[in-house]
């Protein structure tokens, strides 16, 4: 799939419009996973806007996003970077025919302080 087709698919899946972005950086400033990400929320939006999708698909940043929607809450224009990142993640994992996490991986990730909802969300997030 070419970059324009990938952009169209990501926009369809996310339901958000990166063209509304004014590149203020508030989304990145509030992101709790900022230090872990190669590409930050405002960069995702810009790269998708410019149909520069391939580096995003290869990046580990798509798996570092917590999908907490802090970026969406801070955006003055209503752009939802987390939805765009989630769509890129789905575009990345679906053709690979494999999951980022399996049921066998769950046990090693558990600790007593982690809410069950976090485990279920992670499993949903990284599987088809």
- Our estimate of the beta-strand percent is under 5%
Number of strands: 0
Low-confidence stretches: none
Name the structural class: mainly alpha
N-end to C-end Cα span: 20 Å
Q: How are helices and strands ordered from N to C?
A: HHHHHHHHH
Principal-axes geometry comes out as globular
As a percent range, the share of helical residues equals: 40-55%
Task: Indicate the radius of gyration in whole angstroms.
Answer: 15 Å
Give the integer mean of the pLDDT values. 86
SS summary, helix count: 9
Largest sheet: none
Summarize the structure.
This protein is mainly alpha-helical and 128 residues long.
Topology:
Layout (H helix, E strand, L loop, with lengths): L2 H12 L11 H5 L10 H9 L4 H5 L2 H4 L5 H5 L6 H13 L12 H4 L6 H11 L2
Describe the structure.
By secondary structure, the protein is mostly helical. The protein is built from nine helices and no strands. The chain has helices at 3-14, 26-30, 41-49, 54-58, 61-64, 70-74, 81-93, 106-109, 116-126. The longest helix is centred in the last third of the chain and has 13 residues, at 81-93.
Keywords:
9 helices; mainly alpha; 128 residues; 53% helix; single chain
